Amino acid sequence: MKRGLRLGIDLFIEDGAYTTVAAAVTMLVTLTLLFSAITAAWTLSRSGEVQVAADATALAGSNVVASYRTAATVADAAVLSMGLAGLCTTGAGLVGMLVPGAQAAAGETVQAGIRMLELRNKLAASASRGLSALESALPYLVAANAARTCTAQGSEQVSYTGTALAVPRDSASEFPALEGEGIPTEGLSQASDELGAAAERLAEASAATEEAKRAAWLADCGSDGANMQERAARLSGLTARENPDYASSITWEPQVGLDRARAYYRWRLAHNEPEGPGTEAAADAAARSAFYRFALEELEAARIEEVDGRVVSTVPLLPRNTDDVRATSLYTEAVWPSTVEAEGLTLHYSAACPGAAGAAGPALSLAATENGTARECPTCRFGVGDVGRAPAASTSIENGFEYHLRAFTLALNEYISCRDRELELEQEVRQEAEGASDAFEAALGTLAGKRPHIAPPGRDGCVGFAVTGEVTTPEELESAFAPGGMLTARGAVAGSVLAPDPATEENNVLADFFSTIASRTSGGGAAGLIDDVMGLWGRLLVTYGNAADGLAGVMDDLLGGLSSLGMGSIASWLSNQVSGAVHALGLEPVDLTLMKPVLTDSANVIARSGSSGLSDVQSALRSLPVGSTDPAPMMQALSYEVGETLSGATFTLAEIPLPGGGSIPLTIQVQDLMGGELP
Q1: 233 lies in the same domain as 124
Q2: C-alpha to C-alpha distance for 66 and 141, rounded to whole angstroms
Q3: Which DSSP string do the residues of 390-401 spell out, in sequence order?
Q4: In what side-by-side order are the strands of the sheet with 161-167?
Q5: Last residue of some domain: 401, 429, 457?
Q6: Is the CB of residue 319 less than 8 Å from the CB of residue 396?
Q7: Which of 331, 445, 488, 675 is 20 to 30 A off residue 32, Cα-Cα?
Q8: 254/221 Cα distance (integer angstroms)
């Protein structure tokens, strides 16, 4: 026994060294192990590649969902910003209709804004149809892109079959801006027409008022040479404060002329003296005093003021001759002294009249000498004609203060008439402005509320499936040491979801889109108060993420520019109404974050699917028809029904109409969409 054992060992070990047999056996074992390990590594690699294919398939499905989210956000941004641009333009035009210097362009601006709103309505209808069709086809597009990607993972030795299913299958998206009948433009158009017509009538009335006011200003202190101010300075000792000068009718008010006339007659009455010796000069002075006193009393009682929407003026036309005097209290007021002479009751200019020899009689009016009550004094011969001559000369020639006072009073009366008409039209315009404000708020209100809720099929993720059939060991791996074999069919499942990719100014869903639109719509053309409506749209488009702040900023800039031209009370009121409505709109911010697909535990996605076909993953994998590239039979095998499919190389999501005609198609390359590219 010992010798037999010894002989067995001696075959491998001899004198402490390996024999030839030992070396040969070692080499055979090593080669066998090496080829077996290579075959095992190949087998494990083929098995692991199925999972890689499933991962790629799931990610390809989520890529389609991410691209759709981008397309939907772009569509809503285009629609909302175009509507806001139209409303900003229209609102600025409505206010501009009431702003002097802007009225000519305001009508054109309103029309440009309304055209923009109509274009927005067309875009909204187009985008609504496009998004609806795209969402209906999204499960199929997810499956088709995933199937294409899965097939692309294969090689000459191995082919893969698979697809991805969108979870959930149904849509829950809401697009308030794209639903309904669009922004109502009929009310805006009618309101703007009525406001424009009323504003035009008001502008004509205002021009007439300003012209009448200017005529009164010219008579008071505006005309070159003689005027009330110049005559008062020459004929009285009024101070500059009592006798001011105004360089423009804009800063001048009619009250200035009335106050000047009061001061003038007050001074003339206080400083009236006979201009020479004798009874005649004394009688003339008495006549002037009577006229000055009468004029001062009349003017002191006069007023110029607006009451309850009407201008009240009681500034009288002073008498200019004897006939005019007879129509005033100068003629009927009993203020003149009389004496009882032998010839009868006699009227005098003063008790100091040399002809007053008899006893003092009662105070008489100037009418007494003409109605036979009293006789004219033969010495002073004072009567109504003397008082009538006091204003006659100075009213008839430019050198007289009364000449310009009469021109002022006549112009003032015309101004009052024009101003009353203007005030009446202001009330009419205010009513039309209220109607325009209501129409604007009604149109703006259609954009209020929540922003879109983008919840397409696949919003909770995608489940990717990949299978491959049996495969034999490659010939190059077959040998006497490790004979080839057959690798059975294999399959894998994977899950993917969308994760946020933080948005920046350069990296968001609108960056590429706006750069394209900007290059194709540059130079939108002048539109009245707004030089570039398309540029305004672009400004609002890039602020879509926080549309409320962007809109408020644009509106404040536009109305601020109008205010620099000078707004009246109605324009300011309408401006405040428009601005207030815009600031109160309350648009919710929109998340512009890009979404990117990432892998996740497939069990989490399957749990949200609600599909019985996915409850047994092993059965689902076995049901896939190996070798197929058509997603339809694969989805049918997985008990996953889809609605519409999308064919063709290009899909038009919406048509962006342009104000000057034509449109920009917002198209999606279907192949690019399925490849995850931006639309």
Answers
A1: no
A2: 12
A3: HHHHHHHSTTSH
A4: 161-167, 461-468, 490-501, 594-600
A5: 429
A6: no
A7: 488
A8: 11
Q: Is the pLDDT of residue 294 over 90?
A: yes
528-541 pLDDT per residue, tens = 555 556 666 666 76
Tell me what pLDDT residue 565 has: 62
- For residue 619, CA distances in Å to 218, 393, 624, 635 come to 102, 122, 9, 14
User: Which residues neighbour 483 within 8 Å (Cβ) at sequence distance 6 or greater?
Assistant: none
Token reading at 89: 């333009």
CA distances from 273 to 16, 284, 297, 391, 540 (A): 164, 9, 20, 16, 78
Most confident among 9-13, 315-319, 629-633 (mean pLDDT)? 315-319
pLDDT surpasses 50 at 591:
yes
Q: How confident is residue 496, by pLDDT bands cut at 50, 70 and 90? A: very high
What six digits make up the tokens of 26? Answer: 């070692």
- CA-closest candidate to residue 330, choices 302, 378, 305, 366: 366
Closest CA to 331 of 368, 380, 305, 356: 368
Q: Which two tokens stand for residue 482?
A: 């490790």
Query: 262 and 129 in one domain?
Result: no
Return the structure tokens found at 180. 């309904």
Nearest to 541 by CA among 91, 84, 46: 84
Q: How many domains does the chain have?
A: 2
Question: For 459-482, how does the pLDDT look when each residue is reduced to its tens digit (9 = 90+)?
Answer: 889 988 888 765 555 555 555 455
Residue from 338, 322, 260 nearest 287 by CA: 322
pLDDT band at 248 (very low <50, low <70, confident <90, very high): very high
Query: Do 405 and 466 reside in the same domain of the chain?
Result: no
- 404: its two tokens: 């310009």
Could you identify the residue written with the tokens 């993720």? 461
Q: Which helix (H) or strand (E) holds 359?
A: strand 359-360
E strands, 436-526, are: 461-468, 471-472, 486-487, 490-501
pLDDT at 290 over 90: yes
Does the residue 631 lie in any domain? yes
The backbone torsions φ and ψ at residue 472, rounded to the nearest 5 degrees and listed phi first, read: -95, 160
* Residue 171 belongs to domain spanning: 26-183+446-674
| Contact of 205 with 421, CB cutoff 8 Å | yes
Q: Report if residue 352 sits inside a domain.
A: no
Residue range 411-438: mean pLDDT, rounded:
92
Instruction: Give the model's pLDDT for residue 677.
Output: 40
Cβ–Cβ under 8 Å, residues 38 and 97: no
Average of per-residue pLDDT across 69-94: 81
